[in-house]
Write a structure and sequence with these properties.
By secondary structure, the chain is mainly alpha-helical. Helices cover 56% and strands 0% of the residues.
């Protein structure tokens, strides 16, 4: 399964029906992560501090795909992932 890492990341927090709905986004997500230099998606509770950037980037992608948006959380995740320059 080519996107098993995405499913492993999402499985603890999403129902299977929601994951099925997001699968169409996985190729675009892989491309977006690659542009940020992220080629491995860790588990969402990885103890390795080096995985924090990838976890934050995945969390932002999942948040942006959600039907229920939270502008404050997305703003903070964009700051953490350096999608754009930091603005307090």
């Amino acid at each position: 399964m080519p996107y098993q890492d995405f499913e492993d990341f999402l499985r603890p927090s999403l129902a299977e029906q929601s994951m099925v709905e997001l699968r169409k986004d996985f190729p675009r997500w892989r491309h977006r992560l690659a542009l940020q230099g992220i080629d491995v998606v860790p588990t969402p509770i990885s103890p390795d501090p080096g995985d924090a950037r990838a976890i934050n980037a995945m969390s932002l992608l999942v948040r942006q795909a959600s039907r229920e948006r939270d502008a404050g959380v997305e703003h903070n995740l964009r700051n953490l992932t350096r999608v754009r320059a930091y603005k307090p």
